[in-house]
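Supplementary notes for students who missed Thursday's class. We covered one full example, reproduced here. Read the sequence, then the structure, then the short commentary at the end.
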Amino acid sequence: MKVIAIGRNYIDHAKELNNPIPQEPVVFMKPDTALLKDNKDFYYPEFSNDIHYEAEIVLRICKEGKHVSQKFANTYFDAIGLGIDFTARDIQQKHKEKGLPWELAKSFDGSAVISPLIPKEEIDDLKNLDFSLLKNKETVQQGNTKDMIFSYDDLIVYISKFITLRKGDLIYTGTPAGVGPVVIGDTLVGFIGEKQMFSCTIK
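Structure (token representation):
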């Protein structure tokens, strides 16, 4: 399986990082070694001094798809979860300044927290879904999927033009405003609505 992630998919987040509003989805990849499951601790890597959390809704792809049409896109995922796209902001900034890819800032081991997944049939309204992230019991991010620049279906259509989607692939759909740094000792807890989805302690 592969992890496909989307950058700058909420206007307020793009603005907070002084990035232009994208006209097409910004796509990058994480390897499967990035996944951090089962409420495991996140170990602060030695190569960065500025790791940021980015909470986001995650889709699970349920069948193979290439050049998926818009009207069928919603049939290509069967469950959603909540994740964190940990980002080494210092490395990302250095690479952006040089016009280099920022994969190393996004794709390191443990950089993709993933919650248990919920079958989409159990969600009342996928397009109007509240989610939030608490750091040390204080809310730092609040988002709603209605504020996405590119919808789930848009992302599936766009990605599948370039990359064949396969069963079990995960799509991290982008983060709302409120991203920020973590330090050793912090605890991050993610919610979809009122349901706690994960807890992750920084070690």
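Commentary. The mean pLDDT is 96. The longest strand covers residues 77-85. If anything here is unclear, bring it to office hours.
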